[in-house]
Every structure is written in C-alpha cells, then in structure tokens.
Amino acid sequence: MVKIKGNFCVMVLSALLGLMVVCAPFLNSSFAEESALAEKNISKVDTKLVQPVKEAPMKKATNFNKTQNKEKIKTEVEALPQSIETKASSMSVTKNEQAIEKFDEYVLGPEDKLKINVFGEKELSGDYRVGSEGSIAFPLIGDINVEGLTLRQAEEAIKVKLRQGYLKKPSVSIEIAESRPFYILGEVRRPGSYNYIAGMSVLQAVAISGGFTYRANRKSVEILRGNEAPAEPMNTTTSEKVKPGDIIFIQERLF
Asked: What are phi and psi of 106, to 5 degrees?
C-alpha cells in the first residue's frame, strides 16, 4: 500500500514538471509582452506630464496679450469724448491760484447759484440763486442786483447795503456754488445745455457735447454772449474761452 502511494506521488511530480517545461515559453512571452506594454504606458505618462510644461509659455503669452489689449482699450477709451461728470472732474482747475484768478474774473448772471457768508451772521449766510432779472433776494436789504458784477464787486455791494443801519462792519465772502450753464447748438452730436467749467475752451465744449457731426463746419462757430448782438464768429482752433451763459452755434458746412 505504501509502495503504491509513493509511485503515485512520483507520477504527479513528473507530470507537473513536464507541464512547466511545456508552458515556460508561453510564460516568458507573456511576461515580455507585459513588460513592453508597461514601458509603453510609462512612455505615454511621461509625455502627458511634460506636455503642460511645453504649453505654459504659450499660456503666459496669452495673458500678456490680454494685458496689452487691456492697455490699448484703456487708451482708446480715454481718447473718446467723456461724459459731463467725468469731463468736469478731469477739467477741474489743478491749481488754487488759477481757480482764484478765474473766479475773480467771473461775471455774475441769471441762474448762478451763490454761497454767501456773512461773518458772525448765520441767519444771513446761505445759498442764493440769481433770478431772471439779475438780482438776489437778501434778508434785511431785500433785492440787490448783481448781474454783470464780479464776485468781489458783489461782496462790496452787499457790504454797502448792510452798513445802512444793519451792521457796522460787515464781513462778506461770496463763492460760486453752481455756475449757470452754457448752451451749444447746431452740428454737434448732443446739443443742449451743459454745466460751465472754469477755463474751458470752445473746442472742449464741443467735446463735452459729443463732438462734431460729419456735416459740421469746424471753422465756423458763432457765439452769442450775454446781450451782445449780432453773434460773433469764432474759430475753434483758437484758445478762446467759453463764458457762463454763452450760446455756441456750430454751423453746417456747405460742401
């Protein structure tokens, strides 16, 4: 019985060894194929990892181009006619000396809004609008005509009135709270009335109103100023300044 079992084990071992010998080439081939496939996959993975590095400079260049375009757009926008509020801000007087000089020369007229301060007299101080007749209604002294006066002259006129039985030594200061508008008509894109800005030129007034139309005669501008008549033709290429209340008319070219 023991001898039979021993022979059976020998036979099984011999069969297994034979099977291994027969399958060895196939196992080696499978291992080789798997190795080749693994190397191929590794090669693919390496390529994918390197690819973004190659694309990075292109992406950076794209961002740089966007920056350039943004700067270009900004430049183009700044070159366009600005809105009234923006224009008023950009054209505001940069030096106090210039502002004082300009307002010293400012001639008052209807629709001007004045900020009048009488030192030590709060009930007299406040904002006053120049009426259509050119006067303001002032407490104690009643209506006082200021049309055609400068700010300093208007201050003196009020002082004189206040000295007549009201105050011994009145101290009065006047500032422009809101200037009367100017008007621009004719061949501009947005004709109408606009807030006056100290020191502005006719050409700047045209820019505020949207610029010339294609029919505009850029060398023929008429201005009606105050009660002056007839209107005075003015070349927009000059440094002529606009005054509050001006009526500017841009002519149409004939051909």
From this structure: -65, 130
